[in-house]
Amino acid sequence: MSDQEVKIPEDLHNIVQNSIQTGLTRRKARQRQNHLTAISAAAVCCTFLFFFQTNAVFAKTVMDLPIVSHIARLFLASDSQTEEISYIADIKIPQLENNDQAEALNTMIAEQIQAHEASAKQRAKEEYQAIIQTGGDEADYIPARISIDYQLYCNNDQYLSFAILFTYVRAQSSQTVDCYNVEAGTGRTLTLVDLAGTDYQQRIAQEIQRQIQAKPEAEQAVYNDDLDWISLIGPERLFHLDHNGNLIIEFEKYEIAVGAAGVQTFTIALDRLQ
Question: Measured between alpha carbons, how far is 186 from 31 in angstroms, rounded to an integer?
Fold first, then answer.
Protein backbone atom coordinates (compact mmCIF):
# COMPACT_ATOMS: atom_id res chain seq x y z
CA MET A 1 0.00 0.00 0.00
CA SER A 2 1.26 3.51 -0.81
CA ASP A 3 2.35 5.76 2.06
CA GLN A 4 1.18 8.90 0.21
CA GLU A 5 -1.27 11.08 2.14
CA VAL A 6 -4.84 11.04 0.81
CA LYS A 7 -6.42 14.49 0.70
CA ILE A 8 -10.12 14.58 1.70
CA PRO A 9 -12.23 16.97 -0.45
CA GLU A 10 -13.67 19.92 1.44
CA ASP A 11 -17.17 19.38 -0.07
CA LEU A 12 -17.30 15.64 0.75
CA HIS A 13 -20.48 16.07 2.78
CA ASN A 14 -22.34 17.70 -0.13
CA ILE A 15 -21.17 15.00 -2.57
CA VAL A 16 -22.43 12.22 -0.28
CA GLN A 17 -25.81 13.91 0.24
CA ASN A 18 -26.31 14.45 -3.50
CA SER A 19 -25.48 10.79 -4.25
CA ILE A 20 -27.97 9.58 -1.64
CA GLN A 21 -30.70 11.83 -3.03
CA THR A 22 -30.04 10.65 -6.61
CA GLY A 23 -30.26 7.00 -5.55
CA LEU A 24 -33.56 7.56 -3.74
CA THR A 25 -35.03 9.36 -6.76
CA ARG A 26 -34.08 6.52 -9.15
CA ARG A 27 -35.46 3.91 -6.75
CA LYS A 28 -38.83 5.68 -6.55
CA ALA A 29 -38.93 5.94 -10.36
CA ARG A 30 -38.35 2.19 -10.71
CA GLN A 31 -41.06 1.46 -8.16
CA ARG A 32 -43.54 3.66 -10.04
CA GLN A 33 -42.63 1.94 -13.34
CA ASN A 34 -43.07 -1.57 -11.89
CA HIS A 35 -46.36 -0.51 -10.33
CA LEU A 36 -47.64 0.85 -13.66
CA THR A 37 -46.52 -2.33 -15.47
CA ALA A 38 -48.40 -4.50 -12.99
CA ILE A 39 -51.51 -2.33 -13.36
CA SER A 40 -51.30 -2.53 -17.18
CA ALA A 41 -50.94 -6.32 -17.17
CA ALA A 42 -53.84 -6.69 -14.77
CA ALA A 43 -55.95 -4.37 -16.91
CA VAL A 44 -55.24 -6.41 -20.05
CA CYS A 45 -56.05 -9.63 -18.23
CA CYS A 46 -59.30 -8.22 -16.85
CA THR A 47 -60.26 -6.86 -20.27
CA PHE A 48 -59.69 -10.27 -21.89
CA LEU A 49 -61.64 -12.07 -19.16
CA PHE A 50 -64.49 -9.58 -19.40
CA PHE A 51 -64.58 -9.89 -23.20
CA PHE A 52 -64.34 -13.67 -23.02
CA GLN A 53 -67.18 -13.92 -20.50
CA THR A 54 -69.49 -11.42 -22.20
CA ASN A 55 -68.92 -12.44 -25.83
CA ALA A 56 -70.24 -15.96 -26.38
CA VAL A 57 -69.14 -16.07 -30.03
CA PHE A 58 -65.56 -15.19 -29.15
CA ALA A 59 -65.50 -17.74 -26.33
CA LYS A 60 -66.82 -20.51 -28.58
CA THR A 61 -64.30 -19.63 -31.29
CA VAL A 62 -61.39 -19.94 -28.87
CA MET A 63 -62.68 -23.22 -27.45
CA ASP A 64 -63.25 -24.66 -30.94
CA LEU A 65 -59.77 -23.96 -32.28
CA PRO A 66 -58.50 -27.25 -33.79
CA ILE A 67 -55.61 -29.05 -32.16
CA VAL A 68 -53.46 -30.48 -34.94
CA SER A 69 -52.29 -34.05 -34.34
CA HIS A 70 -51.55 -36.62 -37.02
CA ILE A 71 -53.30 -39.62 -35.52
CA ALA A 72 -51.83 -42.02 -38.06
CA ARG A 73 -48.34 -41.37 -39.40
CA LEU A 74 -46.54 -43.11 -42.25
CA PHE A 75 -42.83 -43.77 -41.86
CA LEU A 76 -40.07 -45.72 -43.61
CA ALA A 77 -39.71 -49.01 -41.72
CA SER A 78 -36.93 -50.55 -43.81
CA ASP A 79 -34.79 -49.69 -46.82
CA SER A 80 -32.74 -52.46 -48.45
CA GLN A 81 -30.67 -52.84 -51.60
CA THR A 82 -29.67 -56.19 -53.11
CA GLU A 83 -27.74 -56.90 -56.29
CA GLU A 84 -27.35 -60.10 -58.26
CA ILE A 85 -26.32 -60.84 -61.82
CA SER A 86 -29.95 -60.77 -62.99
CA TYR A 87 -31.31 -57.79 -61.04
CA ILE A 88 -30.64 -54.76 -58.84
CA ALA A 89 -33.39 -54.26 -56.25
CA ASP A 90 -34.16 -51.23 -54.08
CA ILE A 91 -36.95 -52.04 -51.63
CA LYS A 92 -38.56 -49.52 -49.28
CA ILE A 93 -41.25 -50.71 -46.85
CA PRO A 94 -43.50 -48.11 -45.19
CA GLN A 95 -45.49 -48.73 -42.02
CA LEU A 96 -48.09 -46.88 -39.96
CA GLU A 97 -47.71 -45.80 -36.36
CA ASN A 98 -49.76 -43.92 -33.72
CA ASN A 99 -52.84 -45.98 -34.46
CA ASP A 100 -54.08 -49.07 -32.62
CA GLN A 101 -55.76 -50.33 -35.79
CA ALA A 102 -52.60 -50.12 -37.91
CA GLU A 103 -51.26 -53.62 -37.21
CA ALA A 104 -53.55 -55.42 -39.68
CA LEU A 105 -52.85 -52.86 -42.42
CA ASN A 106 -49.10 -53.05 -41.78
CA THR A 107 -49.26 -56.83 -42.16
CA MET A 108 -51.16 -56.47 -45.44
CA ILE A 109 -48.66 -53.94 -46.79
CA ALA A 110 -45.67 -56.11 -45.85
CA GLU A 111 -47.21 -59.22 -47.41
CA GLN A 112 -48.04 -57.45 -50.68
CA ILE A 113 -44.56 -55.97 -50.92
CA GLN A 114 -42.97 -59.36 -50.28
CA ALA A 115 -45.17 -60.96 -52.96
CA HIS A 116 -44.31 -58.27 -55.53
CA GLU A 117 -40.62 -58.47 -54.65
CA ALA A 118 -40.51 -62.27 -55.00
CA SER A 119 -42.40 -62.15 -58.31
CA ALA A 120 -40.13 -59.44 -59.76
CA LYS A 121 -36.93 -61.25 -58.75
CA GLN A 122 -38.20 -64.52 -60.19
CA ARG A 123 -39.06 -62.75 -63.45
CA ALA A 124 -35.57 -61.23 -63.60
CA LYS A 125 -33.91 -64.63 -63.05
CA GLU A 126 -36.01 -66.26 -65.76
CA GLU A 127 -35.19 -63.49 -68.24
CA TYR A 128 -31.49 -63.86 -67.48
CA GLN A 129 -31.56 -67.64 -67.89
CA ALA A 130 -33.43 -67.31 -71.19
CA ILE A 131 -30.75 -64.97 -72.56
CA ILE A 132 -27.86 -67.18 -71.44
CA GLN A 133 -29.50 -70.37 -72.74
CA THR A 134 -29.90 -68.81 -76.18
CA GLY A 135 -26.22 -67.89 -76.45
CA GLY A 136 -26.16 -64.51 -74.73
CA ASP A 137 -22.95 -63.28 -73.12
CA GLU A 138 -23.11 -62.96 -69.36
CA ALA A 139 -20.66 -60.05 -69.46
CA ASP A 140 -23.00 -58.04 -71.68
CA TYR A 141 -26.14 -58.74 -69.70
CA ILE A 142 -27.93 -55.69 -68.27
CA PRO A 143 -29.71 -56.62 -65.03
CA ALA A 144 -33.31 -55.67 -64.36
CA ARG A 145 -34.02 -52.75 -62.05
CA ILE A 146 -36.58 -53.53 -59.36
CA SER A 147 -37.93 -50.68 -57.26
CA ILE A 148 -40.56 -50.70 -54.52
CA ASP A 149 -41.28 -47.29 -53.05
CA TYR A 150 -44.18 -45.30 -51.63
CA GLN A 151 -45.75 -41.89 -52.12
CA LEU A 152 -47.63 -39.96 -49.44
CA TYR A 153 -50.61 -37.94 -50.71
CA CYS A 154 -52.47 -36.85 -47.58
CA ASN A 155 -51.82 -37.02 -43.84
CA ASN A 156 -54.09 -34.92 -41.64
CA ASP A 157 -56.55 -35.36 -38.78
CA GLN A 158 -59.13 -36.92 -41.12
CA TYR A 159 -57.32 -39.01 -43.71
CA LEU A 160 -54.11 -40.83 -44.46
CA SER A 161 -53.69 -41.55 -48.17
CA PHE A 162 -50.64 -43.11 -49.81
CA ALA A 163 -49.59 -45.50 -52.57
CA ILE A 164 -47.07 -48.32 -52.92
CA LEU A 165 -45.26 -48.14 -56.27
CA PHE A 166 -43.86 -51.35 -57.82
CA THR A 167 -41.57 -50.67 -60.79
CA TYR A 168 -39.73 -53.13 -63.04
CA VAL A 169 -37.34 -51.87 -65.71
CA ARG A 170 -35.32 -53.80 -68.25
CA ALA A 171 -35.99 -53.86 -71.99
CA GLN A 172 -39.37 -52.35 -71.16
CA SER A 173 -40.72 -50.83 -67.97
CA SER A 174 -43.89 -51.59 -66.06
CA GLN A 175 -45.39 -50.19 -62.89
CA THR A 176 -48.10 -51.37 -60.52
CA VAL A 177 -49.71 -49.03 -58.01
CA ASP A 178 -51.57 -50.01 -54.84
CA CYS A 179 -53.44 -47.16 -53.13
CA TYR A 180 -54.32 -47.09 -49.43
CA ASN A 181 -56.84 -44.65 -47.97
CA VAL A 182 -57.30 -44.73 -44.21
CA GLU A 183 -59.58 -42.92 -41.78
CA ALA A 184 -57.10 -41.34 -39.37
CA GLY A 185 -59.20 -41.61 -36.21
CA THR A 186 -60.08 -45.30 -36.56
CA GLY A 187 -57.54 -46.82 -38.95
CA ARG A 188 -60.46 -48.05 -41.08
CA THR A 189 -59.72 -48.54 -44.78
CA LEU A 190 -61.92 -46.20 -46.83
CA THR A 191 -63.75 -47.12 -50.02
CA LEU A 192 -65.57 -45.01 -52.59
CA VAL A 193 -68.81 -46.04 -50.90
CA ASP A 194 -67.57 -44.48 -47.65
CA LEU A 195 -66.66 -41.22 -49.39
CA ALA A 196 -69.51 -40.83 -51.88
CA GLY A 197 -72.33 -43.17 -50.84
CA THR A 198 -73.74 -46.36 -52.33
CA ASP A 199 -74.46 -44.62 -55.65
CA TYR A 200 -70.86 -43.40 -55.90
CA GLN A 201 -70.54 -44.59 -59.51
CA GLN A 202 -73.29 -42.30 -60.78
CA ARG A 203 -72.14 -39.35 -58.66
CA ILE A 204 -68.48 -39.59 -59.66
CA ALA A 205 -69.36 -40.24 -63.32
CA GLN A 206 -71.58 -37.16 -63.44
CA GLU A 207 -68.88 -34.98 -61.88
CA ILE A 208 -66.19 -36.22 -64.29
CA GLN A 209 -68.47 -35.65 -67.28
CA ARG A 210 -69.23 -32.15 -65.98
CA GLN A 211 -65.50 -31.38 -65.78
CA ILE A 212 -64.89 -32.70 -69.30
CA GLN A 213 -67.76 -30.65 -70.72
CA ALA A 214 -66.29 -27.55 -69.07
CA LYS A 215 -63.06 -27.97 -71.07
CA PRO A 216 -62.50 -26.21 -74.42
CA GLU A 217 -63.78 -28.16 -77.42
CA ALA A 218 -60.27 -29.03 -78.58
CA GLU A 219 -59.54 -30.71 -75.23
CA GLN A 220 -62.89 -32.51 -75.20
CA ALA A 221 -62.06 -34.05 -78.58
CA VAL A 222 -59.28 -36.24 -77.13
CA TYR A 223 -61.73 -38.38 -75.13
CA ASN A 224 -63.09 -41.62 -76.56
CA ASP A 225 -66.70 -41.77 -77.67
CA ASP A 226 -69.39 -43.86 -75.98
CA LEU A 227 -67.51 -44.39 -72.72
CA ASP A 228 -69.29 -46.53 -70.14
CA TRP A 229 -68.50 -44.37 -67.12
CA ILE A 230 -70.42 -46.56 -64.68
CA SER A 231 -68.27 -49.60 -65.40
CA LEU A 232 -65.11 -47.47 -65.48
CA ILE A 233 -65.76 -46.33 -61.91
CA GLY A 234 -66.25 -49.71 -60.29
CA PRO A 235 -65.07 -51.14 -56.96
CA GLU A 236 -61.59 -51.81 -58.39
CA ARG A 237 -61.02 -48.21 -59.47
CA LEU A 238 -57.89 -46.84 -57.81
CA PHE A 239 -58.19 -43.50 -56.05
CA HIS A 240 -56.44 -41.40 -53.46
CA LEU A 241 -56.96 -38.18 -51.51
CA ASP A 242 -54.81 -35.09 -51.96
CA HIS A 243 -53.48 -32.88 -49.14
CA ASN A 244 -56.76 -30.94 -49.10
CA GLY A 245 -58.85 -34.10 -48.76
CA ASN A 246 -60.13 -33.99 -52.36
CA LEU A 247 -60.85 -37.23 -54.19
CA ILE A 248 -58.39 -37.95 -57.01
CA ILE A 249 -59.46 -40.32 -59.79
CA GLU A 250 -56.88 -41.28 -62.42
CA PHE A 251 -57.29 -43.10 -65.73
CA GLU A 252 -54.33 -44.75 -67.40
CA LYS A 253 -53.01 -43.76 -70.79
CA TYR A 254 -55.40 -44.92 -73.57
CA GLU A 255 -58.08 -45.84 -71.01
CA ILE A 256 -60.50 -42.98 -71.77
CA ALA A 257 -58.59 -40.78 -74.22
CA VAL A 258 -56.09 -40.92 -77.08
CA GLY A 259 -52.55 -41.90 -76.14
CA ALA A 260 -51.17 -38.41 -76.75
CA ALA A 261 -53.40 -37.10 -73.94
CA GLY A 262 -51.54 -39.26 -71.42
CA VAL A 263 -52.87 -40.10 -67.96
CA GLN A 264 -56.15 -38.34 -67.18
CA THR A 265 -56.61 -37.02 -63.63
CA PHE A 266 -59.78 -35.60 -62.10
CA THR A 267 -59.92 -33.75 -58.77
CA ILE A 268 -63.29 -33.86 -57.03
CA ALA A 269 -64.23 -32.07 -53.80
CA LEU A 270 -66.02 -34.53 -51.53
CA ASP A 271 -68.83 -32.08 -50.78
CA ARG A 272 -69.83 -32.26 -54.47
CA LEU A 273 -70.53 -35.97 -54.01
CA GLN A 274 -72.83 -35.63 -51.01
Answer: 58
Looking at residue 2, its amino acid is S
- Alpha helical stretches, state H, the chain: 12-54, 56-63, 102-133, 192-196, 200-213, 217-220, 229-232
Average pLDDT over residues 168-189: 89
Confidence of residue 191 (pLDDT cuts 50, 70, 90): very high
The one-character DSSP state at 189 is B
Q: Is the pTM of this model over 0.85?
A: no
Give dist(CA 85, CA 142) in Å, integer: 8
What is the C-alpha separation between 116 and 44, in angstroms, rounded? 64
Q: CB neighbours of 274 closer than 8 A, spacing ≥ 6?
A: 196, 197
**How far is 78 from 150, CA to CA, in rounded Å?**
12
Q: Which domains does the chain have, with CATH numbers?
A: 70-190 (3.30.565.40), 191-274 (3.90.640.20)
Kindly report, residue by residue over 14-61, the tens digit of the pLDDT.
Answer: 544 454 454 444 444 444 444 434 444 443 333 333 333 334 333 333
